Amino acid sequence: MSFRDWVNNNSPAAIAVAIVLLCVALGVIAWYNAGSGMGRGGNAYFYDLSSDEVFTADASAFPPIVGPSGEAEGVRAHVFSCGTCPQPGEITGLNWQAVEDQTDAFIAFFERWPADARDIVAGEVEADYMERSGAEMAGTEIRTPDSTQWVNREGEGSFIAEEAIDRCGGGTRRVCLARR
């Protein structure tokens, strides 16, 4: 008996098997994305500009945040790899150059909200609709680890981000996530 004949002769069982497989697939996708660090309760990489080290924190945080130094100098660190991504514990505590020297990963750029926009977007100060919209539209600032110049991500920063990320040439680039 062929598979097709079995499905035709056992339609309810075939439907049940298909539903179970679909549920398993959706469960795997949900589990995989649960700690992805994309603002859904997972962790993300951050970098303390005062102590010069990588750390992880809640991905939903609006940088700059308080880092290991105790200062509000924790900015989002966008970590990529042309090979294998390290586990979070492998790069936590390292400075950006050590991440590159000791692993296949690199920090392409740092990201933060400008101080006035951060407080509005994070909901830490009262703001009307126009103020909130303006802060969101102003967007974030980025800079590469070897620079001190912050630029708007939507303007000059878009070129900086693209250039920094494209370090793998024609090879595969992986986004490294700080999973829990």
Give a short account of the largest sheet.
7 strands, antiparallel
Q: What spatial form do the alpha-carbon principal axes imply?
A: extended
Succession of helices and strands: HHEEEHHEHHEEHE
Q: Percent helix among the residues?
A: 25-40%
Could you tell me how far the N terminus lies from the C terminus, measured between alpha carbons in angstroms?
48 Å
- How many strand units? 7
The structure class reads alpha+beta
Poorly predicted residue ranges: 32-39
Outline:
This protein is of the alpha+beta class and 180 residues long.
Structural summary, described in words:
There is one protein chain. Strands 1, 2, 3, 4, 5, 6 and 7 form a seven-stranded antiparallel β-sheet that branches. The protein is extended and about 70 Å long. The chain is built from seven helices and seven strands. It is an alpha+beta fold and 180 residues long.
Name some characteristics of this structure:
7 helices, 7 strands, alpha+beta, 180 residues
Secondary-structure map with pairings?
Blueprint: H1 3-9, H2 11-34, E1 43-48, E2 53-58, E3 74-81, H3 88-91, H4 96-102, E4 105-112, H5 115-121, H6 129-138, E5 141-143, E6 151-152, H7 156-165, E7 174-175
Antiparallel strand pairs: 1-2, 1-3, 3-4, 3-7, 4-5, 5-6
Helix pairs in contact: 5-6
